[in-house]
What does this fold into?
Amino acid sequence: MAVAASGPFAENVLLCDIKIGEGVAAAKILKNILEKCCALYNAGGGVLEMRIVDFEDLEPPHNELNRFWSTLEQKLKALIEPLSYVDVFERTFDRNSGKVYLFIKNVPNHFCTLRFNLFLAGDSGIYEASNIEAINVMTKPLNLKKKRHSDVDAPLSSLPKVDKEFAYGESVSFHESRRIEFKHYKSEQILSENNRTQCDNLRKIISSFANTNGGVIYLGITDEGIAFGHNLERDSTEAIEERVHFLIDKMYWSVTPKREVHWDLKFFPVVGKENHSVIVIYVAGMQTSGGVFAKCPVSVELRPSEDGSEGQVHLLDFDEWKQRMVGRTDVQTVQTDSKGLYDCMYVLITSNDHYVVLAYKVGPRLKM
It folds into this structure.
């Protein structure tokens, strides 16, 4: 059990410094808090002790804390979705020490993820899947009543038909939709490893199409539907094909992606501009294959160190994360009698030697 002077007695305790004056809610501070909350929750719960470094400058400190917390609370709600904030978090503020203690309760059969990196296609664009949506995508193959004969639901042949010739600077005859995306990159070499923004953006689009009904990506057409193409004079078709293949292989697929089955790539000339082509990437729909992730999902867990010192925040790899997310989907029996319930208790010792006891009825323990 970790013990902090004038602080909480709990199995898992993490510390961090925060600055909240003048409505400060810097992204770096919020990210640090969210990572530690995620690590504590996934380790079974615990306490995050936050020292307000600008505490002496705050007048009154409680008002500044509430302003800061209004931003943080929304992010904490998103972190533990679909649970409610009050199911998981309890905040205590020690005015004497200027420390905030966030008590984190673990709810059985729920796992926190900072970023799913699994995307879906909507009518207004692509978006990152929620906790429920991610689980639904990953467990669809398990829930199919009939045996699958293919990991493709919307084959490449079913995708919207594309124009095979484009006029430079003119509007195309179709528009963006749930299955069509336009992108126009102005760099001489597109999708290089050094251009993370382009690569990340394309991975998200591919993920969103693969996890829904498939789609077609046009590189060289602006958001307004104007065709310019990409200049191939300094960027060969062979090099672009190699980069796209590399980008796709770096994604996390539930199947082994094969060209002409799960995806394809073609070049179509732009009339009126020599050496310019629109690059078209086709993505098959695989919404019942188990999920296609743009990157490895981001989730952390507090784990004990080998030498018995303070625990370390561990970044989960894909297989660890997936097992924690859906590894218990085959559980059939839940023990709900009083013997199956267990309590979680934290004791907070404030700087003036007062103490607060928080005891929570966490819920039924699963019978594995």
Summary: The longest helix spans residues 61-79. The CA atoms of residues 12 and 200 lie 35 Å apart.
